[in-house]
Amino acid sequence: MKTVHVNLGNRSYDILIGAGLLERSPDLFEMRGIRKRIFLVSNDSLFKLFGKDLLEKLQENDYQVTEILIPDGEKYKNLNTVENIYTYLIAQRADRTSTLAALGGGVTGDVTGFVAATFLRGIPYIQIPTTLLSQVDSSVGGKTGVNHMLGKNMIGAFYQPHLVYIDTETLSTLSQREFQSGLYEVVKYGLIYDQPFSELVRDSMEDILERTPTVLERVITRCCEIKAEIISNDETERDLRRILNFGHTFGHALEAAAHFQGMTHGEAVAYGMIAATHLSVMEAQLDTSVADEIIRNILQVGNLPPIHTLHTEDILEAMSRDKKRLGNQNFFVLLRAVGKPIVTGDVPEKALTEVWEETKRVSASASSRG
Ligand SMILES: NC(=O)c1ccc[n+]([C@@H]2O[C@H](COP(=O)([O-])OP(=O)(O)OC[C@H]3O[C@@H](n4cnc5c(N)ncnc54)[C@H](O)[C@@H]3O)[C@@H](O)[C@H]2O)c1
Ligand SMILES: [Zn+2]
Questions:
Q1: How far is the CA of 157 from the centre of ligand 1 (A)?
Q2: Which ligand is nearest to the CA of 133?
Q3: 77, 162, 265, 360: the active-site residue
Q4: What is the pLDDT of residues 92-144, one digit of tens each?
Q5: Which CATH number fits domain 2-173: 2.60.120.260, 3.40.50.1970, 1.10.645.10, 3.40.80.10?
Q6: Is residue 299 a contact partner of residue 366, using CB atoms and an 8 Å limit?
Q7: How far is the C-alpha of 11 from the C-alpha of 355, rounded, in Å?
Q8: Domain 177-369 is of which CATH architecture?
Q9: Residues 133-159, mean pLDDT to the nearest whole number
Q10: Is 360 a catalytic residue?
């Protein structure tokens, strides 16, 4: 088992990473002083896969655990689900000594964290992330929240968990597509922060894709370390934390232009990173041979849904909507080299058009190769 300490003063906590950690939950809870009343938030299928065993194991050890099942899917990451959880907690007489535990992907984690942040003005919560994306990204950093009809993640709070524990074995049931989507975020960490790690990910891609436990543990641990380091220095996203958005300004536009259909977040970020790499050559003097290598590494993860049929104007339009929302400024994270990011403000529209055309060409030639 590996431990990553997230250093945030009196809100510090640990992330534990290893195969088979779920089975050791009672001990882990005991060691961390988690109190006996626990509400386990999950969805139906994950509860069947892992939750029921977890609940029984905890109950055998004198924990009083109640499950709260929420519907599965991003479209249920909203205030309605939050309200249903509040109602349940109140009906079950939850109080300040109760702990919430989120068992699931980023949706479950974000919703549960937001409930924990707001119920009775804040009660402790634990993250037990089960997708690769949530293990390397959403469970770390304390961003919680839900979507509003008019925009994603519009409502939320920064609220740190008490403990995060990542059982890498849970990934064995994750679909290939969800797994690969999370892997793009893994690739991102190497590119923005750690060149040797980037090489490690490249060289062990086959083992990662086969989900070899030791390799997963190592890779996930490094991602958590990197994110922990970044957020310890900038908890509320003023400056440094922005580099985590590498590929995301472009990626978000792509998700919007595709109407959030046919493309996962990770896949959109993959294209976003390809676009940002092109822009880095134009605006940050990134070496072209390094750029080619970066793009190869991204494509090495697996097939991406084609985007060359999307209209560049639609994507640019989505970017300018985003820009308005962000106080008339888009931010681009560019690379001077692998592990050497810079954050820059607006770039000329002409450059953006060129970048998208270039990125669509990558998509077209990847699709023609099959
Ligand atoms: N808080 C943050 O800092 C942060 C960062 C990135 C993303 N997010 C949020 O995370 C969400 C996306 O998270 P996600 O990609 O984990 O999606 P998700 O939670 O919707 O999970 C994806 C699917 O996989 C299923 N699943 C989860 N674990 C499984 C397992 N082990 N085996 C089989 N199926 C499993 C889920 O039930 C779901 O159907 C978005 O809402 C995004 O906004 C938050
Ligand atoms: Zn992301």
A1: 18
A2: 1
A3: 265
A4: 999 999 999 999 999 999 999 999 999 999 999 999 999 999 999 999 999 99
A5: 3.40.50.1970
A6: yes
A7: 41
A8: Up-down Bundle (1.20)
A9: 94
A10: no
Whether this model's pTM surpasses 0.90: yes
Which residue in this structure is represented by tokens 């880095």?
280
Tokens 């990197």 map to which residue?
Answer: 226
**C-alpha closest to that of 113 among 90, 97, 136, 134:** 134
Tell me which of 77, 162, 218, 227 is the catalytic residue: 227
Q: What is the best residue among 48, 134, 188 to mutate for testing ligand 1's pocket, by most ligand atoms within 8 Å of CB?
A: 134
Q: Ligand 1, from 74, 131, 153: best to mutate by most atoms within 8 Å of Cβ?
A: 131
Structure tokens at 272: 């976003």
CA–CA separation, 4 vs 148, rounded Å?
33
**What's the pLDDT tens digit per position in 27-67?**
999 999 999 999 999 999 999 999 999 999 999 999 999 99
- The answer to whether residue 248 is catalytic is yes
